[in-house]
Design a protein that fits this description.
binds flavin-adenine dinucleotide; alpha+beta; 8-stranded mixed beta sheet; about 30% strand; 22 strands; D-Amino Acid Oxidase, Chain A, domain 2; single chain
Amino acid sequence: MHFAIIGQGLAGSSLAIHAHKHGHKITCFDLEKKNSASRVSTGIVNPLVLKNRTALFKSKILLDHCKDYYYSVEKLLGKPFLINNPIHEILKTDHEIDNWKILSKKINIKEYIGSIENIHHQIDGKGFGIVQNSLRLDVKKYLTCVRDWLHETQSIFNEKVENVSILKNKIHVNNQLFDGLLLAEGLDAKWTQKNFGELQFAPTKGEGIVIQVNSIDVNFPIHRNVFMIQEDKNIYTVASTFDRNDLSVSPSINGRTTLLKHLKSWFKDDFKVLDHWAGIRPTMTDRKICYGWHRDNPNVGYLNGLGSRGVLTSPYYSSLLWGQHKSS
Ligand SMILES: Cc1cc2nc3c(=O)[nH]c(=O)nc-3n(C[C@H](O)[C@H](O)[C@H](O)COP(=O)(O)OP(=O)(O)OC[C@H]3O[C@@H](n4cnc5c(N)ncnc54)[C@H](O)[C@@H]3O)c2cc1C
């Protein structure tokens, strides 16, 4: 079958790869916006909720799917995207160190609680708690490679979908005819809502800054309230904020102040801010990811609500969706 896919963020990309694995042909439509949720994503794959020191719901199944999926895409496209450097959580006090040791013996979470390592001297803390099984996806590289692959072996149009008509088995998208349609529109869910009803979005804005640092050279993500992630020699991203009130896509003074406050509470050296950006996470009110095939049009499906963990969750939910397709 020939499927149209609207959106080539994390959702649309994994739906496209799964469609290909199921033997279907794909034409993707995506407005390549610089500040779409996927394109500003920091790419962290983290099985823990670090704030509460708990494991994420379904963490093991999500992680297994995630690793299998990205390794298989690396193989398919012949390019590496996964960076296997675990999160280093800053532990500030003896109490936090003791608590980390206790967690490392606790069932359901111990597989994610690694050793405690010596902290870097520019960082204010007693030690780094290693988050085992965490990793990072180079999201920009992954999206570009999937886009190139679509361009070379399938089809992709850098255009807005203005027109969708679904009449029995005839699906027209921007006046092209398809057998099926997958909607992966993120927050601009015009066609999803038209076909599946209103989605209960509770979007969350996230902001980040890019800084230049001279004193430190670490290739693993450091975390306490915010992540500090190396992008290049001396260049780090510090992200992200969570804001449910300000939903403008532009960076704000408030966002920058919050990021600097968190960073300065543990990073003890000078740095220069080079850039500041913002994006909006497609989060739902109940925090659940929503997906499904249309009751009357079984070749029309959607995936949305990936929220703040789209890198980890998109492979699993794409595979669930495809598992429910009648041709599978
Ligand atoms: C600041 C920030 C940091 C984040 N960090 C992480 C992280 O570290 N780890 C993690 O797992 N997740 C992270 N996330 C969350 C993750 O980025 C999202 O869950 C994910 O990107 C959502 O993907 P999506 O494909 O559903 O939506 P989107 O990325 O928004 O993609 C939808 C695409 O559809 C296109 N589109 C929509 N309508 C049309 C139309 N009519 N015609 C053509 N194209 C259309 C849009 O242009 C867009 O490209 C972060 C998010 C933000 C904002």
